[in-house]
Design goal:
4 copies of one chain form a homotetramer. By secondary structure, chain A is an alpha/beta fold. Chain A has 2 domains: 130 residues, NAD(P)-binding Rossmann-like Domain (Rossmann fold), CATH 3.40.50.720; 243 residues, Dihydrodipicolinate Reductase, domain 2, CATH 3.30.360. Helix content of chain A is 33%, strand content 25%. Chain A is built from 10 helices and 17 strands. Chain A has a 9-stranded mixed beta sheet with strand order 16-15-14-13-7-12-11-8-17. In chain A, strand 11 and strand 12 form a beta hairpin. In chain A, helix 5 packs antiparallel against helix 10 and helix 8 packs across helix 10. The radius of gyration of chain A is 21 Å and the shape is globular. At the A-B interface, helix 6, strand 15 and strand 16 of A face helix 6, strand 15 and strand 16 of B.
Chain lengths: 381, 381, 381, 381
């Protein structure tokens, strides 16, 4: 078994999710590579020290450039806010490190292009943490689609609904709230939530053709945690768009942080000629499946409890009937990445794959400004 | 089209449900016989007059013996409290009338035997209003079982849960509350609610062999509406029993009026070697079906939305997706009865069929007293 | 009790639904007016005769002008295809009849304007059969919104999904299939299905401001039943649009007949500052309600089983726990209409109310052509 | 932070679940004690070596007596089949080790008594792995009951349904199938599955008074993996029983491995005067709650998505909306145990607590033989 030394940048929510994945993957999967928690990097020395102790990192750094300079680091995992992804990723590529990057890849498409060029020039393994691809029920949906069970696709619809920013008293910016600060996040729900929906949609339904969108900022001004002043809110609180895919299907997408009663309701449904599939994150261990080829009298939506050994990833865990949760999607992604490294075959989504999502986000945000249908840019060569 | 003159006895909840069925059946089913609302009978002259006007009965009576004596009545429908079923039914049989009788057939098995003997001696068409057999989803369950799709049956479980008698202030007896008066009702939930579960179980799973039961009266004394005094409560508020069926399957049954949150949750589930079925009255237009022969990866409980033309009775109503409700089960039962009359082939459950349920209730109530397993009596010859 | 003589035009699906409502309403509601099934009108003499016999109409006509000329007709109920609504309604208004008209009101806004002007000039009671307003769960939603329980509204989303036209072999036009013939229907899912969603949305959420839409015709050519030739399909098979309401909320709407697994999935969800509400037609007797003011630890979506006497309309039917179905929404609408006539206060939606839906449909269809956001026309004076 | 050295006996399904819990607990909980994976013990040297490598145990043993003799072991975790619990536990107590023991505590009550006496005499911390008490939704149910929200309890019902032994070809005995071998397991579903239901019931609803039960062995003979011969099956394939609790409530319990469509459907429902609660393992992150004190019109079962920081244990994991799974119940149990050790206050269920479940199982199995109601033995002094 080969050791693969991890250097993690960022110790927030995602830093924990990634660390948990690195620590667990070897207990459940048989892999050639074993991640070793070599170092974690963060600006606050007390916090990064505490994090290292809690998670078993051997060392810590407070300057990411120092981390990249270390020869004992094989892989750099970027788990810090969006506005730092580009600079770190390009530097890490130059340093010849493997790179994992939190989603969204970048603040926008042009930034993403540079990142893709950097990793491809350096020839380093790279992947973006669009973790929902590795929820077993979602992976099962992918299998069914790839097997052609749905036939011609007519409709795709996706939503990501939350309700945590409805209070006017919630400030923006700083630790834990950088997602509300447009300078750090780049956008609001579009880059944070719809990016997940878009990545899943591309994976399941192929490329987008055109979009028309609307966005809204319901609460226009909030106190900024870093300046202490009430400032204009620059992010989109909500975004909805219509789309047409290259396969001829029609789609609707919607995301908001103002949908009372929904904490993290990430959903998709896809309707094909022969069958339909639906999923949602609030019951992530289930897949809804309707097959018109079932005998008429007993046809119905099947609630598939995805916990069996012949369903994606589930053979690695417990026994039928016993569900896994959110964090396992990260474990699966690490497993697939490490397997890809061993086989010399990259696991998706690579930076290049993730750039496509960035282009869709750019077209969506542009359409919200122009009030017109916008064409989604094609991938760079 | 032949007219069939109805004489209804009782104008309460069931009097309305039956009247609605008689009035509607001809609009939706193609039948040789058309019910005519000839007369309704009740003790309170003002109320019976008002009921006749509201439902379009041509006349009314205040003495059921006068109704039975009328030559223009072809069918007597007994929709009054349990303690009067026997006397009226036997007299109606002697008068040569067709008879429909509300469930339960009788206060107990011995009474039921006399009623069966009377109708069979008279040779008159007869049926008991165990209406849930005619809910389309339940009728579909019956089809699937009869087709052998479930294979060997291992388990049957049924419940009928309500919550309307939890308040200590609720009195017993009199109009609307005779179900709490043991002298009128015969028993509590056993005859009122479990009788439904038992009838469905016999229909779907065959005859019972043995039972062991417990009953409880949670509120021991209530004001009696007829005497004005606080009196001992004689009914069972709750009853649960274990059973073994002749087909070797094991069963559990439970009913109560003290299950907060359940208004009329009548449910059954049946587990066979190959497939399972579940249903409940709160979503009566759906059948849950699990078939182990489905391919493993996409196997799941199917939620069958029973509204299609190829599903029992549904071709008579609207279009797929549009549900019917509780009252339609009575319409279906009238349709089946009238079709049976036309063909000379009785529709189930006949008085004889319903007697079997009475025997099960008797064994259940006896077991609750003896604290032993009791054998269910076999049908009379 | 006063008799109100009904003259029905059309004996298809809606002719049955309306007739059932007229026949039943008096059995369950206490009303000053009692509908009398005086005459039904249709072009095929054998069919109209059969329909009259089945439903108990006293007479029949084969020319709607003759029906309108009859003095014994108080109310004309227009239940024939969309392309005839205008001419009949205007003539009926001139004849001084009360008018009920199937939805959508008209083929388009300009037609609708003339109809509104005609009934208002004549001063006759008028109503359009947007029946879903009278589903008890939907009426309960309306109460909750009117009581201000949701607070400021952020989002509205609605869908109406079907799957009955996926086969290429299905022809267009003629009896039962006129909804696929653009010349008769005016549009596809927009006028047929989205019109329902739009009417409900206006009722619950107020007026629309702007929309942007896309439509698609998946199967471009179908055999036409009347010509026998394969002809271009003129209707929209699917339509999705984004909208902004005058109250500042954002909305998404979608309808299609190509969503496998959904027979008639008419749904809406509305997210407010304090509470959210969701409903769907496949389980029409339930309302989903989330109230953020509930204590945090035990907060959750409530599945309200709308069958209690204190919930809209339900006191008229059975007992708690026993559900009603689709057809009852028509009974309720007749009851409200008759009550409105008695009180001299019209029940909604009047022709004028329904015109607003027509304007939204027009803007949606226009936007699908122009690929731009379109403003919804304001009501006529 | 103090290290606490773990010695695990058994490396099957439960060995993995416990190991995962020991490894993760420190990453998510702030504890005084940190488990150290010191040694794992199993009979097969290759397998135990592999397990040690995969999970990071520092050493291994093939004889449990040697493990107990090691001074560097603080805590012995018994995760081997039921027939070895007693001997190991008593020896471990004598050796002064803390003891965790897989459920059920023992083969029967008398064995359990000796184990309780041993640990109490030795004064060592001890706990039994009834892990479902630590599912957050179940812990929330416990809070609500303890706060008196349900009022007087009328009904308790529980089931644990599986379907994995329906095939006649499945053998009994040996690795992975010892649960079917009565000599090793002690009983079938009673000790394996109902023991879970009983433990939860005692925790939530207090002590049992009396029971009446039936058991069945559907497949009478199976090949035995250890002898290679077809032998009589000694376990109960299914068991159902009625019970009365000391608080006056009535209960039904059922378990089987012959319920098609249910993989591990562990459920309970409890009906009180004011409120009801229901839960099932297939959607373990949800609690169903009905409170009659909610306003009538909007009263309904609440589906509580237990993922918020103010709900039991959930503040330690991710963010609202993101669910955890089965394995987390073990992490929580270790956390509670370690906290108990630090505070000198034992976490439940101790061996003494678990003995009560054993007594219920004994009464159930006895009743199934005697066909009588049996009284549940009171705890030893």
């Amino acid at each position: 078994m080969k050791e693969l030394n991890i250097g993690l940048i960022g110790y927030g929510f995602m830093g924990r999710a990634h660390s948990n994945a690195f620590r667990k993957v070897g207990n459940f999967f048989d892999l050639e590579y074993q991640p070793v928690l070599k170092a974690v990097c963060g600006r606050d020395v007390e916090k990064v020290k505490g994090f290292a102790a809690k998670w078993g990192y051997e060392s810590f750094e407070t300057d990411w450039r120092r981390l990249l300079a270390r020869e004992d680091i094989d892989l750099v995992d970027i788990a810090c806010p969006n506005d730092m992804h580009k600079e770190i990723a390009i530097a890490a590529a130059k340093a010849g490190k493997m790179i994992l990057c939190e989603k969204p890849l970048s603040m926008n498409g042009p930034e993403g292009v540079k990142m893709v060029q950097a990793v491809e020039k350096a020839g380093v393994p790279n992947m973006v943490w669009y973790n929902y691809r590795r929820v077993p029920a979602v992976a099962l949906a992918k299998q069914l689609i790839d097997e052609g069970r749905l036939g011609r696709i007519f409709h795709y619809r996706a939503k990501f609904l939350q309700d945590w920013t409805i209070s006017e008293d919630l400030p923006q910016g700083g630790a834990g709230l950088w997602r509300l600060d447009v300078k750090v996040a780049g956008s609001g729900v579009t880059g944070d939530l719809l990016a997940h929906c878009i990545d899943t949609a591309i994976w399941l339904n192929g490329s987008f053709e055109t979009v028309t969108a609307m966005t809204e900022t319901f609460i226009k001004r909030r106190k900024h945690n870093l300046t202490g002043k009430v400032e204009k809110v620059g992010i989109d609180d909500a975004c909805a768009f219509l789309a047409r895919f290259q396969n001829g299907s029609l789609a609707t997408f919607e995301s908001t942080r103002y949908a009372r009663g929904h904490k993290a309701l990430n959903t998709f449904e896809i309707n094909g000629e022969h069958a339909s599939i639906a999923w949602d994150l609030h019951d992530l261990h289930r897949l809804q499946y309707f097959d018109h080829r079932d005998e008429g009298r007993v046809r119905g939506w099947r609630s598939i409890h995805v916990t069996d050994g012949d369903q994606p990833y589930m053979g690695k865990w417990w026994v039928p009937g016993l569900q896994i949760g959110y964090e396992h999607s990260f474990v699966h992604q690490v497993a697939d990445f490490l397997e890809g490294v061993a086989k010399g075959k990259p696991a998706s989504p690579t930076f290049r794959d993730a750039l496509e999502t960035q282009y869709v986000c750019d077209a969506v945000l542009k359409s919200a400004r122009t009030h017109r249908w916008e064409k989604v840019a094609r991938a760079i060569k």
